[in-house]
Design a protein that fits this description.
By secondary structure, the protein is an alpha/beta fold. It has helices spanning about 40-50, 70-75, 95-100, 110-120, 125, 140-150, 170-185, 195-200, 220-225, 225-235, and strands spanning about 5-10, 15-25, 30-35, 55-60, 65, 80, 155-160, 190, 205-210, 215-220.
Amino acid sequence: MMLIVDKIESGYGEMQVLWKVSLEVLKGSITVVLGPNGAGKTTLLRAIMGIIPIWSGTIKLGEQDITKKKPHEKVQLGMTLVPEGRKLFPELTVEENLRLGAFTRIKSHDIEDTLELVYNIFPRLRERRKQKAGTLSGGEQQMLAIGRALMSKPKLLLLDEPSQGLAPKLALSIVDTLAKLRSEENISILLVEQNIAAALKHADKAYILEQGRIIFRGKPEEIMENEALRKAYLGL
């Protein structure tokens, strides 16, 4: 098991958002979390990453309890988040943004190899490597956000709405790339996504989050076969 989230609760200030949320990510799998706006999906990723505190429950990465660890410590252990909205440094070049993704790596001798790997995955970034990040298209910025995360050499990649603001064809292309990372680089993926077609295309397991609670867990095809579930929570 790559990630085990066991009955975590969290929120902001006195406002509780997550209620005993449990999920698992198998090694080498793509797991998706679906749900309507305001369901708590982004909060879930922030809690797992340590950006907001866990009130109760536990999180394990492999066999290690990481519940109380800080975000940079989790990155060093092999978990990285691609945040909603990309959060790039617009005035820095593509390559400068990428190199910042490796800042937690203690052993830096192979950073150039990782940079080459990112450029092979996203050839467009190689072409734009001296260009400021703020001048890139939306799709290119998303490639850069994922590439920056890969620079930390993660075992587990968390992604928050990577298709946001992208055309449907490009959104599917981004998810195809995630499937390639799983198969070729053995990276496990936890994906939060509103684009249902993109999210379920390569998913091994799916969860539906509603009002901070998991109301479904199972195979992606089970969601598509359940008309009531699709209509009530996914608008399909």
